[in-house]
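Here is a typical protein record:
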Amino acid sequence: MNRNIREIFRRFAKNECENSSELYETLSYEISEDSDLLELACFIPEGQPIPNLFFAAVQYLLMDTQDDLKRYYVSFTESPLPVQDAFPYFKKYVLSNEEELKQLFRSKLVQTNEVRRCAYLYPMFTDIYEKHRMPLALIEIGASAGLQLGIEQYRYIYNDKLVVGNLNSSLTIHAQNRGKELPRSIKEIPVVETRIGVDLNPIDLQNKEELKWLQALIWPEHQERKNLLNQSASIIKNLDIQLIRGDAVEQIEEICDQIPLNQLIVIFHTHVANQLPMHLKDELIENLKRISAKRSIYHCYNNMYDTLLHQDYMADKIVHSKRVLGETDGHARWFTWQ
């Protein structure tokens, strides 16, 4: 088991943290060689991204302490110490808080709510709205706190020059488009009448501890992501959003049956389907096909059967692929429109 987890931390350091988080990159390589910390990581439940949950739990506990380890986190100090010296303090802190960490492993989930992913969803949704001229009913699978359900409430700046969306918004999302020109529809804000999020453990932004967990999931160097989280949270609190606790695969058909027929359903999820076993992915598609026998819907998603971002139109149980984007950054700093 340790051998598998050792490789997970090494891949995390190389594939996820390199050029993104020097602290987590350094610590991940150190953890991969430390039997005590690898043993502790074994307590993370199956299906959860192990390094993400491990580091988030540590940062969550650190928020309420004055431990020396905080001196290495740019999220806690403006003048962090060199990350190369952090591991002894990290290991000491982790082992001295072993039981608290195990409890967090059991009770928390990796539910990073990356509002910046709206940057590549927004062009899709405006394109859908322009084609059908129907108010949208947004249903997000794995919604966490539902930040992406406020998609048309935000202002977007693409490639530092194209400004669209709600120009009066208190939140601005910057992203680089490395692909083809964005559709003309992006200049018109789509009408959204229904916002529903489904999650096994939806996060209540009114609960300070739950908001703190979302903040702990953000990597220390990513201050802009934390600012976006806090700003979008203040907007989301004022929207009519229904967050449903439960299994979206099981409930999606029942949820769609409640949507008025004069609204066009757009079901979407980002960086969620990779946590589903293959049989549940297939079951979700079959459920969506059944819905499409009654009314046409859209399904926008990534990490389902590949890592690309798909925009599918479903009608009469037939799936029509309308668009597949090229590569996208995991935190949506850039994407490739096509």
